[in-house]
Amino acid sequence: MNNVLERVAYLRGLSDGLALESDSKESKLILEMIEVMSEMAQSLEELSEEMAEIDDYVELIDEDLDELEDFIYDFEEDEDEEYDFEEIECPYCGEIIEIDKNLFEEGECETEMVCPNCKETFIVDNDDCDE
Ligand SMILES: [Zn+2]
User: Fold this and answer.
1) Of 15, 20, 122, 127, which has fewest CB within 10 angstroms of its CB?
2) Measured between alpha carbons, how far is 91 from 119 in angstroms, rounded to an integer?
């Protein structure tokens, strides 16, 4: 867009070099045309700046929206998994314990667990584990 402003300035310079007679119809026309072009170039420049600002703003909104989508998606996933319980038997006292499958980290195949009845620590295998 700078290019248009520069070219109009160049035209203005050319018209100055012509030493136009200010009272001739042709010179009035040329000077008026350059004036109009100059204003148009200025408007274009301003519009372009405003567009760039709007672009930045839309990008920010888009990023916020992505975060919001991720948040909602995670939230829905959590709700689905909320009742994913499994019953296991304590190898020490035989107590049946309900565990939440979410206690496993992503890709984790086993985790330590303390029996609420006998307080012994044992290993719980993750049935969903690939290995
Ligand atoms: Zn136990």
Assistant:
1) 127
2) 12
- The position carrying tokens 């888009």 is 62
The predicted pLDDT at position 1 comes to 47
Tokens of 105: 């980290």
Distance 131 CA to ligand 1 centre (A): 27
Q: Could you tell me which residues come within 8 angstroms of residue 91 by beta carbon, excluding any fewer than 6 positions away?
A: 120, 122
Which residues keep their CB under 5 angstroms from ion ligand 1? 90, 92-93, 95, 115, 117-118
The 3-state DSSP composition of the chain as helix, strand, coil percent (nearest 5) reads 60, 15, 25
User: 57-104, pLDDT tens digit by residue?
Assistant: 999 999 999 999 988 888 777 665 566 778 889 999 999 998 887 777
CB 118 within 8 A of CB 95: yes
Residue 52, strand partner residues: none
